[in-house]
From TrEMBL:
This is tRNA N(3)-cytidine methyltransferase. It is found in: Cytoplasm; Nucleus. Pfam families: Methyltransf_12. GO terms for molecular function: tRNA (cytidine-3-)-methyltransferase activity. Its main location: cytoplasm. It catalyses: cytidine(32) in tRNA(Ser) + S-adenosyl-L-methionine = N(3)-methylcytidine(32) in tRNA(Ser) + S-adenosyl-L-homocysteine + H(+). S-adenosyl-L-methionine-dependent methyltransferase that mediates N(3)-methylcytidine modification of residue 32 of the tRNA anticodon loop of tRNA(Ser), including tRNA(Ser)(UGA) and tRNA(Ser)(GCU). Interaction with SARS1/SerRS is required for N(3)-methylcytidine methylation. Residues 84-182 form the Methyltransferase type domain.
C-alpha cells in the first residue's frame, strides 16, 4: 500500500461566473479527433519544443523547498542519491537539482526526442552525473535504460496530466519497476479548477477534467477521486491527492503535490 505525505489546501471555491462557464462547456471533441490526438501526442509535443526551444518553462528552483523528501530520504548528509525525472522536458528541473546537489546522479527521460536533444546540448549536461533518453512511459520499458530497483527518488512533475487518463496507471507501473523498495515518487501536477482549466475555450473538452490546447497537447486536472482510482494491478498504487495553493507571480495557481511510497 502506498503511504503519502500530504501538504497544502483544498480546492478553491468557484465564482458563480466560473461555475456557469463550466456548466455550459459540456460538448466533447469528436471521437475521431480524440483518436487522432492520441496517435499524434508525441508529434505535438515535439512541435511544441520546436516552436519554444528551451525558452518556454522557467527553471524550477523550488523542488528542494517543496519536496523535503529530497533531503530527508538520506541517512547521512553526503549520501549519494539516484534519481529519475520522468518527463524531464528540456531540463528545467534536472539542471537546477544537479547544480544544487553534487551527490545526485539522475536518469531523465521525455516523450519528445527534441526535448531530449535539448537536454544533451545543454552545457551543464554531464554523462558522469546524468543519463537522458527518449521514452514513452505508457509503453516503453524503463528497464531498457535504468536498472531494476535502483532509484531512490522519482520526480513526476507536471507530466501525468499530459497522459490520457486511461493510461496513467501504465506510467506508475513502469516507474515502480526501477524504484527501490520503500523509496519515493514525488508528484506535482494540475489540480481541479486551476486557472489554466478555466481558460480553455468551448470545444476543447475531451472528457471529465481533460482538455486539449490549441497546439494539440493535452492536460488533465486532478481530483482526490481520480488519484484514488489510479492504481497498478500489480503494485497496488492506491493514492490520494490534495491541492496546494501557491502564489506565483502574484497569481493564485493550483497544483497537486504529494509523495507516494509503495
Amino acid at each position: 500500500m502506498t503511504s503519502l505525505q500530504r501538504k497544502g489546501l483544498q480546492a478553491r471555491v468557484l465564482s458563480s461566473e466560473e461555475e456557469e462557464k463550466l456548466k455550459r462547456d459540456q460538448t466533447l471533441v469528436s471521437d475521431f479527433k480524440q483518436h487522432k490526438l492520441e496517435q499524434e501526442a508525441q508529434k505535438n509535443w515535439d512541435l511544441f519544443y520546436k516552436r519554444n526551444s528551451t525558452n518556454f518553462f522557467k527553471d524550477r528552483h523550488w523542488t528542494t523547498r517543496e519536496f523535503e523528501e529530497l533531503r530527508s530520504c538520506r541517512e547521512f548528509e553526503d549520501q549519494k542519491l539516484t534519481m529519475l525525472e520522468a518527463g524531464c522536458g528540456v531540463g528545467n528541473c534536472l539542471f537546477p537539482l544537479l547544480e544544487e546537489d553534487p551527490n545526485i546522479f539522475a536518469y531523465a527521460c521525455d516523450f519528445s526526442p527534441r526535448a531530449v536533444e535539448y537536454v544533451k546540448q545543454n552545457p551543464l549536461y554531464d554523462t558522469e552525473r546524468c543519463k537522458v533518453f527518449q521514452c514513452d512511459l505508457t509503453k516503453d520499458d524503463l528497464l531498457d535504460h535504468v536498472p531494476p530497483g535502483s532509484v531512490d527518488i522519482v520526480m513526476l512533475i507536471f507530466v501525468l496530466s499530459a497522459v490520457h487518463p486511461d493510461k496513467m496507471h501504465l506510467v506508475l507501473e513502469n516507474i515502480y519497476k526501477v524504484l527501490k523498495p520503500g523509496k519515493s515518487v514525488l508528484f506535482r501536477d494540475y489540480g481541479l479548477y486551476d486557472h489554466a482549466m478555466l481558460r480553455f475555450k468551448a470545444g476543447s473538452k475531451l472528457g471529465e477534467n481533460f482538455y486539449v490546447r490549441q497546439d494539440g497537447t493535452r492536460s488533465y486536472f486532478f481530483t482526490d477521486g481520480k488519484m484514488n482510482g489510479i492504481q497498478s494491478l500489480n503494485v497496488l498504487f492506491f493514492v490520494s491527492v490534495y491541492l496546494i495553493a501557491l502564489s506565483l507571480q502574484g497569481c493564485l495557481e493550483k497544483a497537486c503535490n504529494m509523495c507516494m511510497r509503495p
